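For the sake of transparency, this paper describes our internal protein records without simplification. The record that follows is passed on verbatim for readers who wish to inspect the format:
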Amino acid sequence: MTSRTGDNVGVRQAVEDDIAELVRLRALLFENLGGDFFNPASGGDDWLDELAVVLKDQLATEAVHILVVDGESGLAACGIGTVEQRLPGPHLRNGRIGQVIGVVTDPAYRRLGHSRSVMRGLLDWFRASGVARVDLHASSGGEPLYRELGFTDHPDPSLYWRP
């Protein structure tokens, strides 16, 4: 169902028929991030097939929420949110963390408010899901929007490891 009220005009939940377009937009996201770490060419294209399989599985789970905006031919924008149950702690009382996995808008549809609408839809879903915190990694282009929506610098240092 497409939302027609408030700031989420045109936003709807993704369905299985959207998978090819979700894969296209996700690849576009990594192309725009640039650098060796995010460059899809550095890892080959096999990840796109894996992505399609995982997206199909994730559409059926309550821990993942994929929102899209339709364009004239294909999707104009999408955003993916996940909820993870971690161990509760003094700064994470219920242990539920939301993660914005990626918000991307096709270049032909940028500067029309689609990312903002998708993010507001995801934030509504996170609130309804009872998360204690929502994390995301912001591109330089997306950071002003996220800060406007209330995101601040994370107090924890971020490191990663690859086996």
User: Anything to note?
Assistant: The CA atoms of residues 23 and 48 lie 7 Å apart. The beta strands are 11-13, 64-70, 75-85, 96-105, 133-136.
